[in-house]
Specification:
Layout lengths: L3 E8 L8 E7 L4 E8 L2 E2 L10 E4 L2 H5 L4 E5 L5 H4 L2 H8 L3 E3 L1 H13 L8 E3 L5 E4 L2 E7 L8 E7 L2 E5 L17 H10 L3 E5 L12 H13 L5 E4 L5 H13 L3 E5 L1 H12 L11 H4 L7 E5 L9 H6 L13 E4 L8 H13 L3 E3 L14 H11 L3 E5 L3 H13 L4 E2 L6 E6 L4 E5 L4 E5 L2 E4 L3 H12 L1 E8 L5 E10 L11 H15 L3 H5 L1 H20 L4 E8 L1
Parallel strand pairs: 3-6, 6-7, 7-8, 12-13, 13-19, 14-16, 14-17, 15-16, 17-18, 19-20, 25-27
Antiparallel strand pairs: 1-2, 1-21, 2-3, 4-5, 5-23, 9-10, 10-11, 11-12, 21-22, 23-24, 25-26
Helix pairs in contact: 5-12, 6-7, 15-17
C-alpha cells in the first residue's frame, strides 16, 4: 500500500487549550507516529463539581503506542505539557524538549513518581531530532514564555511547519527574536502544510511587545507610594523580569508569592535565563517599608487557592493590603474566568486597595498572533496547505478564510479526532478516531460520560435525598423510614423540615404494598421506594434530586 502523511488533532482543535496532536507516516496498517504536546485545560464552574483539571483522551494513541517514536514538546505552558504526568503511562514514549521546558517537565514527572521511568531528552535551541521517518527541527519563535519553538517536520512526502503558540515580538526581553531567516528559507525550500495558532485571528493589527509593557510597568510602579503587588502569569518570565526592573527603578525589593511563581523562577535560574535577580523571602518582606517592597503574585485569574485570592480575603500569611496600596493586573482575562476576576477586584476595592488593569494602562500584551502577524507568517512560510489549530470552531473557520485571502488555496479545519491526510492527494479527512475528555478527580482519572460525573452534576444541581429503612426477617419495619436531605431548601430557603415527613410517608405507603418476600429482597425494595419517591418528589419540592435508598434486613 502507498505511504501517507497524516495529521491528527486530539485536543486543541475546536477549543483553546488541552493541546494534543500527532503526525503519522506510513501505510494504514504500518504507520509510525510522533506526538506534539500533551496539555491540560482547567475546569470552570460550567464543568463537573470537584474537578479542576481536564485532559485530552489519548485512547487512539494508546492503541498504537508501540508505534509512537517520540513526544515532542513545543514549550512549557500547562496547555502543552500539563497532561504528561497523567498520561505518559498510556503512551510510554521518549520525551523531547528544550532546556527550560525540560526543567518544568521534570516537576510534572516527580509529582507522579515518573522521573526515573521516563526518557527525557534535552534538545538545544535550534536543535534537531532524528525520529525516522521524521526529522524534527526546533525553530525559534516568540511567545509569552521562555524557549517557545515551532517545529519543522520533514518527511519523505514533504515538510510540515507546526507553529505551536507564537507571536511576532520585536523586543521579547527574554530569548531571541523570531527566526525570520529560518522561516523564510523554509518557505523558499517548500512547505507542504502549516499547522498554525488561531487564538487571535479576530484581532486586527499586532499583539504588541514585552518591551513596551516593561516601559509602562516601570512608569506605573514609580507612581505608587504604598505596597505594590503585580499579578501576572508565572510562566511569563519576561514579565517577571519587567516587574523586577520596575522595582529596581523605584528602589524596591522584590518578593515572590505563589508556588508556581517560585517554581518557574527556579527553572529559569537553572537554565540561565534569570541570573542576577535577587528576591526577598516572604517572611522577611514585612520588615521593609511600604514604598520599599514589590510583590510578584500568582492568581491573576481569580483562582481560589492562589496567592492573590488569599491576599484579597486577608488570609495570606505574608501580605496584607489596604488603603494606599496598589494591585496591578499585568495579565488578560481568560474567557470563562471573568466573574472570578471581577470578584477578586471587588474584594480589593472594598479593602481600599487601588486596582490597575490592562484596560487602563498598557501593561499586558498577548502571546498569540493577531491578523497582521498571521499574514506575516504566511508570507514567510508560504505553505500549500493551511491547517488552523489552537482555537474554537469560529477561530478555525476565520483563520481558514484569512489564509485563503492570502492566496493559500488549500485549507482544512479538522475537529479533534478527525485524521487529515496531508499527502499524497491532501488535504482530506480520511478517518475519525475516538476522542474526548478525561477528568482528574483527586487521584483518579474519570472518562467523559461516566456515571459518577452525571451523579455529581445532579447532586450539585438538585441535591440528594437519602432514605434508610430496616426490616426484621419477617418483613416488619424495625427502623425508619428515616429521611435525610442535603442541598435542598424549602420555600423559605431553610433545610427541609416537614417535607421530610411527607417523603417518609410516601416511602412507608410504598412498603405497605410490598409482600414480605419483596421487603426482605433488599435490592427490589430499594428500587420500588426510589421509583415511588422520584414519581412524587417534583410535585412536592419542584426539583428532581438524586434519591438514594438503603434497605437492611437484620
Amino acid at each position: 500500500m502507498q505511504n501517507s502523511l497524516v495529521f491528527l488533532p486530539l485536543g486543541g482543535s475546536n477549543e483553546i487549550g488541552m493541546n494534543l496532536n500527532a503526525y503519522g507516516y506510513g501505510t494504514e496498517e504500518n504507520r509510525k507516529w510522533i506526538v506534539v504536546d500533551c496539555g491540560v485545560t482547567f475546569a470552570s464552574e460550567q464543568h463537573i463539581p470537584g474537578v479542576e483539571v481536564i485532559l485530552p483522551d489519548p485512547e487512539f494513541l494508546t492503541g498504537v503506542k508501540e508505534d509512537i517514536i517520540g513526544i515532542v514538546l513545543t514549550h512549557a505552558h500547562e496547555d502543552h505539557i500539563g497532561a504528561l504526568g497523567h498520561l505518559w503511562l498510556k503512551l510510554e514514549a521518549p520525551l523531547y524538549a528544550t532546556p527550560f521546558t525540560a526543567e518544568l517537565i521534570k516537576d510534572k514527572l516527580r509529582e507522579h513518581n515518573l522521573i526515573d521511568a521516563v526518557e527525557l531528552n534535552v534538545i538545544p535551541l535550534k536543535g534537531e531530532i532524528n525520529l525516522d521517518p521524521f526529522l524534527v527541527e526546533y525553530v525559534t519563535i516568540t511567545h509569552s514564555i521562555p524557549e517557545p519553538n515551532g517545529l519543522k517536520i520533514t518527511t519523505p512526502l514533504g515538510v510540515v511547519f507546526h507553529t505551536g503558540d507564537w507571536k511576532v515580538d520585536p523586543d521579547p526581553i527574554v530569548g531571541e527574536n523570531i527566526d525570520v531567516e529560518a522561516l523564510t528559507k523554509m518557505g523558499d525550500d517548500g512547505v507542504l502544510a502549516m499547522v498554525c495558532d488561531s487564538t487571535n485571528v479576530f484581532v486586527d493589527g499586532q499583539s504588541g511587545s514585552e518591551g513596551a509593557v516593561r516601559k509602562e510597568l516601570v512608569k506605573l510602579v514609580s507612581e505608587q507610594k504604598g505596597k505594590v503587588a503585580i499579578a501576572c502569569f508565572a510562566s511569563n518570565v519576561a514579565r517577571v523580569l519587567s516587574g523586577v526592573e520596575a522595582a529596581k527603578h523605584s528602589g524596591r525589593a522584590v518578593c515572590l508569592l505563589g508556588r508556581s511563581m517560585v517554581r518557574v523562577v527556579g527553572a529559569a535560574r537553572k537554565v540561565g535565563i534569570i541570573t542576577d535577580a535577587v528576591f526577598v523571602e516572604p517572611e522577611k518582606a514585612s520588615t521593609y517599608k511600604d514604598n520599599e517592597i514589590l510583590y510578584l503574585c500568582t492568581g491573576s485569574q481569580g483562582e481560589p487557592r492562589a496567592a492573590l485570592k488569599r491576599i484579597a480575603q486577608g488570609k495570606h500569611p505574608s501580605l496584607n493590603l489596604g488603603q494606599g496600596d496598589t494591585v496591578i493586573f499585568s495579565s488578560r482575562e481568560i474567557p470563562g474566568n471573568e466573574r472570578d476576576i471581577y470578584d477578586l477586584i471587588n474584594d480589593f476595592m472594598l479593602a481600599g486597595v487601588e486596582v490597575v488593569t490592562a484596560h487602563e494602562r498598557a501593561i499586558h500584551v498577548s502571546g498569540h498572533p493577531c491578523r497582521d502577524e498571521l499574514a506575516q507568517m504566511y508570507s514567510w512560510v508560504r505553505p500549500k496547505i493551511a491547517i488552523p489549530t489552537h482555537g474554537e470552531r469560529r477561530h478555525l473557520i476565520e483563520h481558514a478564510r484569512l489564509a485563503q485571502s492570502l492566496q493559500i488555496k488549500q485549507t482544512i479545519t479538522p475537529r479533534n479526532g478527525e485524521m487529515v491526510q496531508i499527502a499524497p492527494n491532501g488535504p482530506m479527512i480520511v478517518d475519525e478516531v475516538p476522542n474526548g475528555r478525561l477528568y482528574v478527580d483527586g487521584n483518579t482519572i474519570i472518562a467523559q460520560g461516566a456515571e459518577i460525573l452525571r451523579e455529581r452534576s445532579k447532586i450539585g444541581e438538585n441535591g440528594v435525598i437519602v432514605i434508610m429503612v430496616s426490616f426484621d426477617k419477617k418483613g416488619r419495619i424495625v427502623g425508619g423510614p428515616d429521611v435525610r436531605a442535603r442541598g435542598i431548601a424549602d420555600k423559605n430557603g431553610e433545610p427541609l423540615g416537614d417535607t421530610l415527613d411527607v417523603i417518609a410517608d410516601i416511602a412507608e405507603k410504598t412498603i405497605d404494598k410490598l409482600t414480605i418476600a419483596e421487603r426482605i429482597d433488599e435490592e427490589y425494595c430499594e428500587n420500588k421506594i426510589v421509583r415511588s419517591i422520584r414519581k412524587n418528589i417534583f410535585d412536592i419540592i419542584k426539583k428532581k434530586p438524586m434519591v438514594e435508598v438503603m434497605v437492611m434486613v437484620i
